[in-house]
Amino acid sequence: MEQPIPFFYDVTLRDGNQALAKPWNNAEKEKVFLRLLKLGVQGVEVGFAAASDMDFESCKGIAQLTASMAEKGDVAAQNVVVASLARANKVDIQRAFEAIQYAPKPRIHTFIAVSKFSMEHVLKMSPEQVREKAVESVTFAKSLLQGRGDVQFSAEHFGDSLDNMEFVISLLKEVVDAGATTINLPNTVERYRPMLYVEQVRQVVEALPKHVTIAVHCHNDLGMATAATVESYFVGATQLEVALNGLGERCGNTNAYEVAVALYNSGAPVQLNLDKIYETALLVSQWSGVNIYSRAPLIGTEAIVHRSGIHQDGASKTKGMKKGAYRPIDYALIGRDENDSISFTSQSGRTAVYEIISAFGYRLSLEEAQELQPILKDLSEKEGELSAERVLDVFRNERCNVNGPLIFNNVEVLPGENRFIFYFKKESEAMVKSITAEGPIEACLMLMQSIGMPVELVKYRQLVVPDSDPLWKGRGLSRIILKAANKTVEGRGVSSDTLKANMRALFSGVNLLYR
Ligand SMILES: [Zn+2]
Question: Which of 247, 308, 413, 493 is 20 to 30 A off residue 78, Cα-Cα?
Answer without folding.
Answer: 247
